[in-house]
Amino acid sequence: MRRKILFVIGIMANIMALAQTYTGKVLGKEAEPLVGATVVVASHTNATIAYGITNDKGMYKLKIPEGKDAANVSFHFMGYQKKTLPFAELKDGMSVTLSEGGTKLREVKVKALRIKSVGDTLTYSVAGFRQGQDRSIADVIAKMPGLEVKENGQILYQGTPINKFYIEGLDMMGSKYSMASENLSADKVQSVQVLENHQPVKSLRKVSFSEQAALNIVLKDDAKATWMGALDVGAGYDDEFLYDCRLMGMRFDKRFQSLMMYKNNDTGKELDNEVLDLTTLMDGSGTEQGILSLMHVASPNLAEDRYTFNHSHLVAGNWLFKTGKDSQLRLQGDGFIDKTSMHDYYATTYLTLAELPVVVEEQEVSNTRSEWQAEAQYEFNGESTYIKNHLKGYMDFNKSIGAMLYNGERADMMVKPHKRSLSELFELSHTTTKGNVYSVDSHWAYNYLPGQLLTINGMTERLDLGFFSTQNGFHNKWKIGRHYLNNDLGIDYDHEDIDVALGESQKRSNAYQLLCAYWTPSISFQFGNHVLVGSSKFSYAHQSYRESKSHHLWIDPSVRWNWKATAVSQFSSWVDYTNLPMMGEAVFDTPVFTGYRTQTINRGKTGSTHSLRVTGSYHYANPMNGVFFHVSPTYMRSSGNILYENTLIGNVFTMSATDKDHDMQSARLSGGIGKSFGWAKATVKLNASHGITDYSLLVSGDVDDARTYSTSTSFSYALQPLRILSAEGKSSVQLMRQRNLTHPGLSSGSTTSWEHSLDLHIFPSERWMLSVDNELFHSSEESVGTSYFLDCSVNYMAKRWELILTANNIIGTSKFEHRSIGNTVMTYSVTRLRGRMLMLTFKMDL
Amino acid sequence: MKTYYKLTILLLLCSLCSFAQSGDSLLCVSYEYQQGWTKNEMPEIRVLQMDGEVSRFYSLTERKVQAQLDSLVKVMNGDGDRIMGARKLLQQGQKQKAGSKDVVYKHLPSISLMTYTTKIGLQAFLYTDSLIATQWHLEEGDTVIMDYNCAKASLDYRGQRWNVWYSQEIPISDGPWKLSGLPGLILFAQTASGDFSFNANAIYYESGTIDLPNEKDYVRTTRKKVNELKGKLALDPVSVMESLIDPSQYKVIRSKDRKRPKISQDEKKAIPQMEYY
Question: Which value does ipTM take for this structure?
Answer without folding.
Answer: 0.79
